[in-house]
User: Fold these one by one.
Assistant:
Number 1:
Amino acid sequence: MARLPRLVVAQQPHHILQQGNNRQPIFCDSDDFAAFLGWLRDGARQFKVAVHAYVLMSNHFHLLATPADEEGLGRMLQWVGRHYVPYFHRKHGHVGTLWQGRFKASVIEAPRYLLTCYRYLDTNPVRVGLATSAAQYPWSSCAHHVGSRIDPLITDHPLYWSLGNTPFEREAQYTDLLA
């Protein structure tokens, strides 16, 4: 039986989850995280996908992203995989599939759940004990959202911009939202 097509809605934010096969690591060191983010940034630009938030954990990653069209999201992740998976296999002597099936994507009702999804992604490392504060974890978008660093991967969603008229106001409001 053929698999059902994934629901992707152009111009709507999506929560994306991709796990390592059998929950095995997909990132082993900081070079792996950085390489993946570089390809993700290039793929997002190439396929017109705005990435609003992300978190990379050792055995999975989450993205909050808005594709410009119905094909962009799948093509971006396929393109990233075609670059990252051979890199990972070569570097770590891994063989076989890296991913546990297809990525999962859920359309987010922006006005109601978007900032909740931002917070869920950015606080993921705190919930599992990898950091004591969300902004400390280097492989998420949180430091960008609270104003600690500029992340060229991130395209802020208009609802994030609505948190304040200035970057300082937005960052302060987002910091309060995390608390």
Number 2:
Amino acid sequence: SNLCSECGLAENEMRFAHDGSLNYGFECISEPHTVKDFWSKTEKWRKMLKYLSSHGYSSHNGGTCGLHIHVSRNMLGNTVSEQSSAIAKVYTFFDMNWGDLARVSRRTDFGYCEKNSMSSNAVFDSKAKTKYEKWRVDASRRSQNHYVALNNGNRNTFEYRLGRGTLNAWSFFS
């Protein structure tokens, strides 16, 4: 509650929880935001990061902390087929640009966000000629592995897990 009041966040906008992948500490979980709403709170996010940093918390240097973003599946399409198509495009983009995305992520350990690979047990359409077409078949099924860069396992969201945790505002907004 101190953090929320210091930063101008309502207590229902942020919650804090234990995370088994963290060596020490807790995770900060924001409530869902539209893109417009998120950017309207830029100063609040900046104050939150500064508050945590000035009170001795760490993120980037903690070693196991990640910055994860959940995107509503409804934003990706109106039907499962449209959502699978959008997810397949993201998979394809990440596959084709993994080296650059890994560098931008600032991560050195990818144990919690491995590069996605097409499921070995996926039944691919024999007519699929491109990686995108193969990913599209795979994207229609939710993945079981939570520790991948693109987590397709949640029924309501699609999760980007590649970012390294940070209390630096520039890195956070990037």
Number 3:
Amino acid sequence: TLTLSPARAESWQAARDAAPGVPGTESWTFTSEFQAGDNKVEVLRPDPLTSGRRYPVVYVLPVNAGTQGAWGHPLEEARRHDLANRHQVILVTPSFAVLPWFGDNPLDPALRQNRHVSEAVVPFVDANYPTLATARGRALVGFSKSAPGALQLYLLEPGKFGAAAVFENWWGVPDEKQWREWGFASCYGTRETYYTLNPATLLARERTTLISAGRPLAVLIGGPDARLGTEALLMTLRQHHIPHTELRDMAWGHTWKSPWLPPAVIVLGRRG
């Protein structure tokens, strides 16, 4: 059975940034053994924090190598909707050294994006913020190419992540051009690794556990065009009788700036 190895606090180093990229957030320059160079961990927390209280954490995974890109900034949208205060959660977005497709490349120790999240970012956040440090207190959000990462971590780490929501997810097997030019080869290293980490493989493998686990899983669908990847994911969930929530709004566009993130956070808060 493929699992990620236990978290180790020594796998990361961090320094607080004087000027965060998004006003109202906290930013850290972050070094992990699983990613090349310095990257960022950006945090949006309730203001003020209540003394003695422990807060759930939502890990909002980016779709570009940094946290800001053509599709907007996840925490900028979370701040615009006041999600941290409204739902009393901490929202976290990490950045990555290369375009993230959320693999763990067995050929390159510095290109292990899932392990970067699970073994470096999560223990860092737990060490520096008053988190509810259990699976029940951690959730994942993925959008487009980061949706497979959210699904992978949700399926590989049931003891660490208790819920996941994905919007307009990538789905399928990359062709040769996509494998070479879109970044799959860098993130996964081998086709075998991609197959092993592919959410389709993991959902089939874990279907029995997921049916009885009571761990929220939400799939959000926008428009106006057909979203073939999302429909393929939904078909897989239905075929395996895996419990999930479906939210559809044809006005939602393929961007962080479209207002799908607030309902995703609401669904994640409904713990079974």
